[in-house]
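Need a sequence for this fold. Nothing fancy.
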């Protein structure tokens, strides 16, 4: 077993980036087996408290041995950046192996998926090691909004490693585990805020890609219109490496064909530029900067905007999205998500080889029949509302038209009229705007409040703007270097 810092190699695994790990592999300071053993030990030590990992892959060490063999046998430089790197994936992302895919619910325990999810196929082809499944807000927080963030029946209550409070959801375990050094990098999914929010709360980097840039095939769905799969990592560079590995066409997800036009030749790592902010036009929508009487947050984000300017960005302040009140106060997103959830979940369940449940109605019945197992005091009102829908009627059609119109007349108009490269907002407060239009966003650590609670800064842009967002996020990250690991005392309480 390798210690956090090996006395013989002086190489520290904790907080190591993908680049650090690859260099350690190449210089024979570390093997994939040692790395997996280290993370398995970290999980054994800290997961009973943090509950970020739902299941560990029993074949992870065998996969690590294969990676070590390939590294010895293949020519230097022939392997991908993620070769031999352990990765934890959210428990909505299917793996055709001994791991379960359950969305955190006992209703899907023992179900058999037909194939790996599209993103998992790409990870395996790159030589990454699937370390296990991360916990989440059950059913990606689409059973009920009354359950706490980061809670699932199978995984229990996930905890923020900085505070032991709620971690935000729904990709909570992915963020918890990366933040607490239980794994190198992870995958999450987002429908509305589920990558950006836990990334902000757990002081990690999250990329919410343009919808369709990464495949959703084999992912327990909410909405094919809004769902996206993206990386959650400790650094922007690691997130870029994961994104360029998982992006691309998957014949099982038609949306990837259209979105593939956005993928830059040469991948995303080329946009990791320290001067990436130079010449960028960043918009500030002041509505998102109302921190009430919190002087600390006011001053922190004022300093961050100053940093953006000092690094060569043009900050266009005092902007307003014309239809923002209509977007925030409307039920159109909920109306759309409800019927989309029922249709897409039924299709996912029907595609399973075996499953205890074959429809949303079956899931609701299972929960009612197992109230203690599924902790039914939290209820399942969101699922029940979704089950009541009956396809696309007049209200559903109008809701979809509203979302399209608001995106075009709101965010897109704002971006184009002001010639912006991105909008910059605190926390994950902008996730709703990015969600309804399928736009990308990147969350980067931005500080810690007086109680030690982490918070992030978010850069959001138009579809396909990931190259610009990575340039901006990386430049900001390198200018500030704010992120720090959780205090070891909290992890051992």
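Here you go.
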């Amino acid at each position: 077993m390798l210690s956090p810092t090996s006395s013989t190699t002086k190489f520290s695994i904790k907080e190591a980036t993908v680049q650090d790990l690859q260099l350690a592999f190449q210089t024979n300071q570390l093997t994939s087996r040692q790395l997996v053993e280290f993370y398995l030990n970290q999980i054994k030590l800290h997961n009973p408290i943090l509950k970020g990992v739902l299941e560990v892959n029993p074949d992870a060490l065998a996969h690590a041995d294969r990676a070590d063999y390939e590294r010895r046998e293949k020519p230097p430089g022939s392997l991908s950046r993620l070769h031999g790197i352990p990765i934890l994936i959210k428990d909505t992302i299917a793996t055709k192996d001994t791991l379960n895919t359950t969305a955190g619910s006992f209703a899907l325990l023992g179900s058999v998926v037909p194939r790996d999810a599209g993103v998992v196929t790409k990870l395996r082809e790159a030589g990454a090691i699937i370390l296990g499944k991360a916990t989440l807000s059950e059913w990606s927080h689409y059973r009920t909004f009354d359950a706490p963030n980061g809670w699932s029946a199978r995984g229990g209550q996930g905890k923020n490693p900085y505070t032991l409070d709620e971690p935000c959801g729904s990709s909570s375990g992915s963020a918890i585990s990366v933040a607490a050094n239980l794994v190198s990098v992870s995958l999450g999914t987002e429908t509305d805020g589920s990558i950006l929010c836990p990334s902000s709360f757990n002081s990690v980097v999250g990329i919410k890609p343009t919808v369709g840039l990464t495949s959703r095939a084999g992912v327990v769905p909410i909405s094919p219109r809004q769902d996206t799969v993206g990386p959650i990592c400790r650094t922007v560079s690691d997130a870029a490496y994961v994104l360029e590995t998982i992006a691309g066409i998957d014949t099982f997800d038609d949306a990837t064909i259209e979105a593939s036009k956005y993928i830059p030749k040469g991948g995303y790592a080329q946009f990791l530029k320290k001067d990436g902010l130079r010449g960028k036009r960043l918009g500030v929508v002041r509505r998102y900067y109302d921190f009430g009487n919190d002087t600390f947050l006011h001053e922190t984000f004022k300093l961050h905007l100053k940093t953006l300017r000092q690094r060569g960005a043009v900050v266009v302040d005092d902007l307003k999205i014309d239809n923002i009140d209509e977007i925030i106060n409307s039920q159109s997103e909920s109306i759309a998500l409800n019927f989309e959830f029922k249709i897409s979940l039924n299709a996912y369940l029907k595609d399973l080889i075996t499953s205890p449940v074959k429809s949303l109605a079956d899931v609701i019945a299972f929960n009612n029949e197992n109230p203690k197992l599924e902790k039914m005091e939290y209820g399942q009102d969101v699922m029940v509302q979704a089950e009541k829908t009956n396809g696309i009627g007049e209200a559903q059609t109008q809701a979809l038209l509203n979302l399209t119109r608001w995106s075009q007349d709101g965010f897109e108009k704002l971006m184009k009229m002001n010639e912006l490269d991105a909008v910059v907002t605190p926390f994950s407060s902008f996730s709703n705007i990015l969600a309804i239009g399928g736009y990308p966003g990147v969350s980067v650590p931005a500080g810690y409040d007086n109680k030690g609670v982490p918070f992030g800064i978010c850069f959001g842009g138009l579809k396909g703007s990931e190259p610009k967002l990575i340039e901006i996020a990386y430049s900001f990250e390198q200018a500030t270097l704010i992120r720090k690991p959780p205090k070891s005392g909290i992890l051992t309480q």
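For context: Residues 18-278+328-397+424-491 form a domain with the Amidase signature (AS) enzymes fold (CATH 3.90.1300.10).
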